Amino acid sequence: MAVFFGLVLLAAVCALMAVRAVRLLHAALWLAGVSVAVALMLYLVGAYVMAVIELSLSVGLITILLVFAISMVGADSPDRPVPRLLNLPFVAAMLLLVIGLTVPLLASQSRPTEASFAVTFWQQREADVLAQVALIFAGVLGLLGLLTESRSHRPPSRANAPQAAETQPAAAAAEGETELEKV
Amino acid sequence: MTPLHVLLAGAFILLGIGLYGLLVIRNMIKLVIAIQIMVKGAMLAFVVAGGLNGQLNLGQSLALTVITADTIVAIIGLALAIRIQERSGSLDVDEVMNLEG
Fold first, then answer.
1. What is the CATH T-level fold of the domain B3-90, as seen in this structure?
2. Which of A27, A38, A183, B94 is buried most deeply by CB count within 10 Å?
3. DSSP label at A43?
C-alpha cells in the first residue's frame, strides 16, 4: 500500500512541478516523470499492456515531440503561470462534480467474467480500433497540412535576407529563395 | 481502502492539477503539457475503474483509445503552436487573442 501512496505522491509532485515550471524544457521533463509514475501504477495494477504503451508513447514519443517543438520555436521562453482568484474554487467544484458522478457508479456495477485483452480489444471494441485508425490518419493529414502551409508562409525576415534586396543582384536573391524553399 | 482506491484518488488529483494548469498557463506548449496531465488522470481512472469492476481488460482497451487520441491531440497542438509562433512571434495565448485579422 505504501508503494501506491508513494507513486501517487510522485505523480502529483511531478505534475505540479510541470505546471509551475518556468522553463518549457523543465516542464517537459517533469511531464515525463508523471508518465513514469503512471506507467508504474498501471504495471502494479496488472495492466501490463497499457504500462508498456504509456512508457513508450508518453515518455518516449511525447517527450521527444515536446523537445523538438521547443527547439523549433526558438529560445526556451520562460512562462510564469498567472493564478487568478476563482481558479482553485473552480477546480475544487469540478473535481467534486466528477467524483460525485463517478464514484457511486463504481459501487453499483456487476462483475461479469472477463475475456482476454486481445478478445476485448479486437472483437468487442472493434469500433474503437476503427476510430483509432481514423484518428491516426486525421492526425497525419493535419500535421502535413499545418507544416506544409507554415513553410510557404514564412515571415519576410526569415524568407529573404534583408541585405540581399539592395546589395546583391536580383538573380542571386532569386537563387537564394529557391534554395531556401528546397530546404 | 484498497490500492485501487488510492490510484483512483491519484487519478482525480492528476485531473485537478491538469485543470488548474489549463486555467493558469498562458504558454501554448505548456497548455499541451497540462492537457497531457489531465488525460493521464483520465486514462488511469479508466484502468482503475475496470479493475474495480473486474473488467481490467475492458479498461485497458478504453485507455488505449484514449492514449491514441491524446497523442494525436499533442501532435496537432504542438504543430499549431509552432505555426502560430511563426506567424505572430509569440506563444502567449493572451497576446495571440489580442491580434487583429
1. Helix Hairpins (1.10.287)
2. A38
3. H
Question: What pLDDT, in 10s, does the model give residues B42-54?
Answer: 999 999 988 888 8
How many pairs of residues across A and B have Cβ atoms under 8 Å apart? 241
Cα separation values, B65 from A51, A61, A133, B47, Å:
14, 16, 10, 12
**Residues of chain A contacting B55 with CB distance shorter than 8 Å:** 111-112, 114
Q: Which CATH architecture has domain A1-81?
A: Up-down Bundle (1.20)
Q: What is the DSSP letter of A73?
A: T
Which residues on adjacent β-strands are paired with residue B92?
B27
ipTM more than 0.95? no
Per-residue pLDDT averaged across A95-105, rounded? 81
